[in-house]
């Protein structure tokens, strides 16, 4: 906590204690009309983006529910809640956030002025001070929920979790129960990795090693994750090239993976695995057909046959490749390419589906040697598994008829066979370049998509824009 902010919190406590002795000479309801006038407009200090509109709507609802009377100031003196709020804003540093983002520096100046004015606030300034304090609470709450920032500005296919919350009710609870800091803290992630990064952040501030910004960025990424990952779930950490199956906080299965290369980045999102497909066909994506296959076909007519790829028409009929005019783009646009099941199939012998807007999945691969590479950003976006058989056994463990022998037979049957899972399994694909080990140390991974630098640049630009918009109290 900064020295100036700590001093301000001390002043608030002193002001509150004095006010309790003197008693407020101003009725709180005197401010209702002015507060109503503020919340029915949109002041310049409210964000003009979608998040700002959401927070301001919550603020209106909050004040309407309490008759538009102040929440942090009683008449013209500080309430105990004001000190608790400033303490909470100061504690935002523990989450890698900046108290100045919430106006903590400006609020401390106001507190100091009240101290010089016999512990009282100027009557005409109370409505704006109170509404700004409320907005600061809501901004901080939104940050802890992961509502702020734009992950698609960092990675075009990054979907953050919604992490829904009724902030107006949350704030009302905080004020009525005098648990301001507690209600804010309960909005933050509770995942052991997040808690571990908080500890690492405190350690980094005491003994800098040059990783402060990276830790802060990874805390943001955790706030963009769902609050509940599932009792058991699959977790892929793209820059670590690793997949884990987690049960609670314990990894029960782990393996190396291959992820998308920098031109075909693996999307970052959460969904649910619904189906396992043995001996899968591979319907070749149009981008691969156009950019990779067609150039080879012109030079090597036997390419498709060697790769066991069939040309398929719009009605599903197989077409003789010798009858295709590879230079006729309109004709090619009506064709599809399907690689038949088998050991050379690009998907290997099994794939795991979790329906998503990017049409990516996890699958086997015939190129096992690639798992020996240190950097494994090598695919077209899907996640290739080092040990798909182990994952197949795990996801089918509630189907006792699927023995190891039956799984092996289905993988080598040469005919596609899909099996629906009895219980859907959450799948989370994240991007964490700072990972906390069981002993509390932190491993800093590769950054194949250069997202650390991109995130740093985007957040710096956002802070500059916010500074321009800021208006004095």
Number of helices: 16
Spatial gap, N to C terminus:
23 Å
Q: Please identify the structural class as seen in this structure.
A: alpha+beta
Oligomer: single chain
Q: Please, what is the average pLDDT?
A: 90
Q: In total, how many domains does the architecture comprise?
A: 3
Return residue spans where pLDDT drops below 50 for at least 5 consecutive residues.
8-24
Radius of gyration: 28 Å
* Main sheet: strands, sense, barrel: 8 strands, mixed, barrel
Q: Bin the strand percentage.
A: 15-25%
Shape, please? Answer: elongated
The strand line-up of the biggest sheet is: 3-4-5-14-12-11-6-15
How many strand units?
17
The helical percent reads 40-55%
Task: Tell me what the structure shows.
This protein has 473 residues and is α+β, with helices and mostly antiparallel strands. It has three domains: 3-195 and 452-469, no CATH class; 230-281 and 343-432, L,D-transpeptidase catalytic domain-like, CATH 2.40.440; 283-339, no CATH class. It has helices at 3-22, 32-39, 50-65, 80-91, 104-116, 126-145, 167-177, 180-185, 192-206, 212-223, 286-299, 303-306, 329-332, 388-395, 404-411, 451-469, and strands at 73-74, 77-78, 232-237, 242-247, 250-260, 269-278, 282-283, 309-312, 318-319, 336-339, 350-353, 362-363, 377-379, 383-385, 417-430, 434-436, 442-444. The strands form four sheets. It has an eight-stranded mixed β-barrel. A four-stranded antiparallel sheet has the order 7-10-8-9. A two-stranded antiparallel sheet has the order 1-2. A hairpin with a 5-residue loop joins strand 16 (434-436) and strand 17 (442-444). Helix 3 crosses helix 6 (126-145). The longest helix is centred in the first third of the chain and has 20 residues, at 3-22. The radius of gyration is 28 Å and the shape is elongated. The model is unreliable at 8-24 (pLDDT under 50).
């Amino acid at each position: 906590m900064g020295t100036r902010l700590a001093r301000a919190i001390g002043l608030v406590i002193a002001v509150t204690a004095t006010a309790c002795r003197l008693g407020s000479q101003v009725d709180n309801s005197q401010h209702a009309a002015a507060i109503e006038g503020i919340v029915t407009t949109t002041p310049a200090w409210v964000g003009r983006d979608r998040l700002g509109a959401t927070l301001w709507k919550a603020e209106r609802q909050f004040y309407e529910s309490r008759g538009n009377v102040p929440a942090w100031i009683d008449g013209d003196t500080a309430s105990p809640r004001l000190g608790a709020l400033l303490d909470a804003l100061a504690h935002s540093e523990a989450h890698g956030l900046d108290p100045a983002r919430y106006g903590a520096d400006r609020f401390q100046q106001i507190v100091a002025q009240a101290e010089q004015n016999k512990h009282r606030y100027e009557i005409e300034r109370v409505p704006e001070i109170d509404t700004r304090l409320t907005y600061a609470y809501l901004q901080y709450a939104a940050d802890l929920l992961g509502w702020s920032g734009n992950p698609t500005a960092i990675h075009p296919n990054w979907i953050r979790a919604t992490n829904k919350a009724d902030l107006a009710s949350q704030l009302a609870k905080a004020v009525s129960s005098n648990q301001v800091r507690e209600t804010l803290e309960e909005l933050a992630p509770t995942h052991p990795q997040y808690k571990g990064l908080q500890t690492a952040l405190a350690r980094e501030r005491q003994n800098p090693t040059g990783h402060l910004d990276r830790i802060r960025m990874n805390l943001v990424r955790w706030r963009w994750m769902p609050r509940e990952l599932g009792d058991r779930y699959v977790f892929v950490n793209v820059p670590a090239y690793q997949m884990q199956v987690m049960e609670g906080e314990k990894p029960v299965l782990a393996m190396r993976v291959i992820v998308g290369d920098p031109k075909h980045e693996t999307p970052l999102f959460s969904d649910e695995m619904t189906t396992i497909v043995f001996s899968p066909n591979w319907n070749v994506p149009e981008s691969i057909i156009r950019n990779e296959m067609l150039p080879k076909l012109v030079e090597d007519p036997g390419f498709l046959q060697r790769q066991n790829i069939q040309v398929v028409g719009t009605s599903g009929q197989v077409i003789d490749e010798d009858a295709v005019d590879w230079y006729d783009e309109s004709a090619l646009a009506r064709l599809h390419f399907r690689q038949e099941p088998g050991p050379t199939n690009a998907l290997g012998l099994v794939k795991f589906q979790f329906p998503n807007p990017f049409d990516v999945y996890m699958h086997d691969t015939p190129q096992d040697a690639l798992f020996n590479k240190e950097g494994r950003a090598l695919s077209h976006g899907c996640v290739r598994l080092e040990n798909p058989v182990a994952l197949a056994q795990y996801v089918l463990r509630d189907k006792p008829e699927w023995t190891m022998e039956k799984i092996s037979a289905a993988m080598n049957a040469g005919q596609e066979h899909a099996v629906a899972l009895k219980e859907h399994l959450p799948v989370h694909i994240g991007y964490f370049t700072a990972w906390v080990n069981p002993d509390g140390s932190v491993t800093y991974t590769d950054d194949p998509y250069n997202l650390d630098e991109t995130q740093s640049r985007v957040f710096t630009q956002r802070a500059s824009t916010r500074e321009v918009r800021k208006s004095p109290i």
